[in-house]
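2024-03-11 09:14:02 INFO receiving multi-entity request
2024-03-11 09:14:02 INFO entity count = two
2024-03-11 09:14:03 INFO echoing inputs for audit
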Amino acid sequence: MDTTIAVDKSYKKGVVRFVKQDKLLVYSAAVVLIIILIALMAPLIMPHDPTAVSLTEKVNPPSFQYPCGTDPLGRCVLSRIIQGTRTSLVAAAIIVAISGTGGVLLGLISGYKGGLVDSLIMRLVDVLLAFPSIILAMALVVSMGPGLGSVIIALTLVHWTGYARLVRAEVLTLKQSEFVEAARAMGNSSVRILFKYILPNVIAPVIVMASLDIAQIVLSMASLSFLGLGAQPPDAEWGAMINQGREFIRTAPHVTLFPGLALMVTILAFSLLGDSLRDYFDPRLREGYIE
Amino acid sequence: MWRFIFKRLAATILVVVAASILTFGILHLTPGTTPVTILKYAFIGLEEIPTDAEITEITARYKLSDPLYKQYYRWIKQAVQGNLGDSYVYRVPVAELIRLRFPATALLAALSVALSLLIAIPLGILCAVKRNSFFDHLGRISALFAVSMPSFWLAYLLIISFSLGFDLFPVAGFRSVPSLVLPCVTLAAGMGAVTMRIMRSSMLDVMSQDYILTARAKGLYETGVVSKHALKNAFLPVVTVVGLQFGHMLGGSVIVETVFAWPGIGKLLIDSIFAKDIPMVQGCILLIAMTYALVNLLVDLSYALMDPRIRYGRES
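2024-03-11 09:21:47 INFO inference complete, emitting structure
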């Protein structure tokens, strides 16, 4: 009876210590969670219909009825920001899921097989990295025609390279390790070794990269939409909203300011989460860590 | 050393050639290069329906019926000689327009890099030396915000406060020295923040090395330890990151030039994208990829020069 209480206490203590020690991780994870909840519950928490045009209420300043004001077409800016959270997060999730999985698989194969396959994959990575990523995405979007779908495809095609490189490097070192050698000696197949022994060891850095990548993708997507290549009207997307507010910057800065704020908070939260996850998984990487 | 330079140069050329194939491929496997699109966007107007004679004329003029590899070969052969073809929309050589627009972008890029380094390097060193002080926290928090701020949004914040609020700098265009300030600050902010973080952590890393302990132990004053022993080695990672950042800046300049109506390559690229001026888009992207590759080459070479421990090309 006593032991259960003791365990319970030390567990609680552990949680408290965890929260105290990894403040940044806990806070950024909380903000990310709130952002995800906003995206999930978007239709429930929006005060107005994000596409309802009102010609009598164009570019109204923030008020009790419209907490973030209205845009040049009289639509509620707050509702559009909430809808935009969903747009950005869903698109970013699709891109990270596909490019992450693809990149990890190619990295595993490249690192484990070596030889010609490795050279081919890595040369492709080199060529894709010869462009600033947003420029390459731009070229791809141009070829497919502007739109959110094109942006998703373009960013997926651009973003897998990071995962492939990361995983390949990890595999190259893991391949030499004793437990992989032992697994091979026991007669496991290559596929089994890759997925059962090597993959679990590369998951942590991949998760860190994915979190940082989401921040980057949300930014790239907003940038492309801002330039008019991404989400098309009447879709609510932060970058596109900022673009629509451009001409009204003198008289109605709120149309530009609020979506940008949402964008910044999202990017900040995901980058901080990535940074603190990296510290959590590997304390040696803490900035200025002294042994 | 020479062997290393030669190897890197060859690799760079290969990457640029591959990049040109990729650019050409992406842009030519699309509806953007059909005779009808070219006619509608650049010659007769979007509402018009092109006649058969017009289609035949355009196809013949741009040799669009040739197989793709022949078209690519023709394009790259001319490109090597400095001829990037004629713009569909402006009807002048692409290379000439790029030459006209390039100085504005180069000026913006150079000034932004200089500004970001001027702020980021001393700040990074100070933050590292005064680690965990109020100044350090302030510096790191500002860097965090600067990194997370989308450049186009920062641009509007600056316009709202400094152009519309105080009327200090022009909103857009490139007419005078003051009009340089806001675009430069916008571009420098994100880059400077990254550089500062790297400078700080690299400095902290170096400061924990044994030879710094030795320098302190022999009684060297702290300024001497920092400036004579730590700085030189702390600069290495910074050089790499500045090189990588340069690529981001080339991408970022497209956005900043759009916001500030800056007459550079980035604005030209975006305008050409919307005008479906494929030769122009192709030329701009090729130029950007080449500049990026060249900067990466220079970074690698300077890395080898700066760090004698790295014996490139002789390792095996």
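2024-03-11 09:21:48 INFO post-check: Residues 287-291 of chain A have pLDDT under 50 and may be disordered.
2024-03-11 09:21:48 INFO post-check: Chain A has one domain: 37-42+73-282.
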